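Shipment paperwork, digital attachment
Item: protein structure file
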Amino acid sequence: MIGPPSPSRSTHCAPWPRGVTFIELITLTIVILILAAIGVPRVSPIVQQFRVKGAAWQLAGDLRLARQRAVTTQQRFRVCVTSCKITVPGGAYSVEVEQLPVGSLKWTSETGAATRLPPDVTISATDTDSTFKANGMASGNTFTLSNAIGTYEVRVASTGRVKVCQGTCPP
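Attachment content:
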């Protein structure tokens, strides 16, 4: 049939009202807030675990880069937590290069600023720094990164190898 729809075929309103009421919005908001209150404490330890793990891998990457730069530029590089050329606040470290001539023990910061770790991560070292020589060899050192959730150890062998371990590294 051609023409306007017949009254029996016309569109009618749905049997339920369109939209939501204010009470339904309030109820939905309360349910979402309750679920968030339950879920957030369970997510927080996971975030802290990833922070300390990420900080350990960041430090390991910077140590490997310092070794690579020492070999490439034939200058000594070091990563230090204390006794650095620049002021290094707690929870940070600095990458520094030795000024020529080699053996002058005059260090300058590679970036001009300390590399900060996440706020809840602390860093300590068994020695003041890890120094990489032009041949890639290093002064052995162990960096420990920790927070309330866990600890990671970043170990630099005398060969220059950098190893990351959860907890402590085996000898």
